[in-house]
Design brief:
- The protein folds into two domains: 111 residues, 3-Layer(aba) Sandwich (Rossmann fold), CATH 3.40.50; 97 residues, 2-Layer Sandwich (Alpha-Beta Plaits), CATH 3.30.70.1450.
- 35% of the residues lie in helices and 25% in strands.
- The strands form two sheets. It has a six-stranded parallel β-sheet, sandwiched between helices.
- Helix 5 links the parallel strand 5 and strand 6.
Length: 220
């Protein structure tokens, strides 16, 4: 059986995400307060649409929210997304994702039980920063010739980089941390992202720099 995803709130991003999930064979339901937006979504084959406020318990109950594998709160308000996320957890959704605009709230959302927190501001900043490095790297190491390595490294509990920001870690010049897997979520890092115990780092490196980067991460 395909996984069921509930998307609550949002507008343009909601439509794009829903269409992307359909392509990947997820079963998609959207709850949204905007009647005209709901009508637009209802014209897309495969999307179930519910017109209502996803922050209201009776709306979630009518949607049988507890049957969903994943719920994604995508309202403009961080506070609304926290309330929706906690309600979804209360009703038994297996994994709850909240989109936020203020990166300073990320840790708080995790402490409140949200499984995965996506900050658009941090993600965009991280993508721009990483892309700048990748553009430089691509001029040195032609992609496709086997000279770029993609490696996953888990940060051990005695690593010297725990608590350090990426900007402060003395990685070789052409080492990129493309993604951090943390608990049940993933982070597109920026320079001020701090490393935590048991993070899994996706390294993008030249072959000759791979060993140096791993030694810095593991301390051995």
């Amino acid at each position: 059986m395909n996984k069921q995803v509930l998307i609550i709130g949002g507008k343009t991003q909601t439509k794009s995400l829903a269409e992307s999930l359909l392509i990947k064979k997820y079963e998609v339901t959207v709850i949204n307060e905007d009647y005209h937006f709901c009508k637009l979504l209802s014209e897309i084959n495969g999307i179930e649409v519910i017109h209502g406020n996803g922050g209201k318990p009776y709306v979630l109950e009518d949607a049988n929210v507890g049957e969903f594998d994943i719920a994604i709160a995508m309202n403009d308000s961080d506070a609304d997304n926290l309330i929706i996320g906690e309600l979804c957890k209360y009703y038994g959704v297996k994994k709850v994702i909240a989109v936020i605009s203020d990166p300073k709230k990320t840790d708080f959302f995790y402490r409140m039980g949200i499984d995965s927190v996506v900050c658009a501001t941090t993600a965009i900043a991280g993508i721009l920063e990483q892309q700048a490095i990748m553009d430089e790297l691509a001029t040195i190491v032609p992609i496709g010739e086997g000279r770029i390595r993609l490696t996953e490294v888990t940060v051990p509990n005695d690593s010297p980089i725990i608590g350090e920001t990426l900007a402060a870690i003395p990685f070789p010049k052409n080492v990129i941390i493309g993604c951090i897997l943390r608990e049940n979520g993933s982070i597109v890092p920026s320079g001020d992202t701090r490393i935590a115990d048991n993070d899994t780092l996706l390294l993008i490196t030249r072959k000759e720099d791979e060993g140096k980067a791993i030694k810095i991460i593991t301390g051995r």
